[in-house]
Amino acid sequence: MTSSTAVLNPDSKAPPFDYNPSSMKQRMRVAALGLVAAAIAFYMGAFQWGWIHSVWDPVFGTGTQTVLTSSESETMRHLFGIPDAVLGSWAYTTEVVLAFAGSTRRWQFRPWLVILFGIDVIPLGIVSAMLVVLQGISVGAWCFWCLCTAAISLILVVLSYDEVWASLRFLWAAWRREPRLAALWGTFVGRPEPSGVRVAREMAG
């Protein structure tokens, strides 16, 4: 889509928002929080892997260690093959990578990338936060760092939904312009479908 997108302003607003949710400013905030969460999760994972002998918890004392060594945590480790905190660190790292991927017009010209990013951040973030709370209730102890990552997950949901919503609205508009699966798929994967390009120009204003 290089020739078709060159005339578009990379900072154009994305309806219904009065800003561009794919701007680097927007995505840098997501990436920064994702890095913090990845580091916290890796710290806990290092304990679960036996690289360090204890985990500092400034609020709940030994609560973090109790949760990380609980039977619930061990069950997840056997299920996924790696400690749950390491899995969480990997998930946050993928969010950082996906936050940086693509241009400032990716909500229109790389919808697949935005949807993939949204799946990584939104449903998985909500589920992750719920699991942290349920695990704390089940174990009977609270993990300060787990609660921190859960809070970050929910913040990431809030910071990311706008770009996903804008991209979904764009795909819907492209479908209404040309209700053919082949054309919609082309627009979704980033091929320069005429109907998609026209809708993109109209939405860019």
Descriptive overview:
The protein contains ten helices and no strands. By secondary structure, the protein is an all-alpha fold. α2 runs antiparallel to α5, α2 packs across α8 and α5 runs antiparallel to α7. The two termini are 18 Å apart. The N terminus is likely disordered.
What is the makeup of the main sheet?
none
| Domain module tally | 1
- By DSSP (H or I, 4+ residues per run), the number of helices equals 10
Secondary-structure class: mainly alpha
Report low-confidence residues grouped into runs of 5 or more.
1-7
CATH architecture: Up-down Bundle
Give the rounded overall mean pLDDT.
Answer: 87
Percent helix, as a range, is over 70%
Query: Rg, please?
Result: 20 Å
* Beta-strand share of residues: under 5%
User: Roughly how many Å apart are the termini?
Assistant: 18 Å
What general outline do the C-alpha atoms trace? elongated
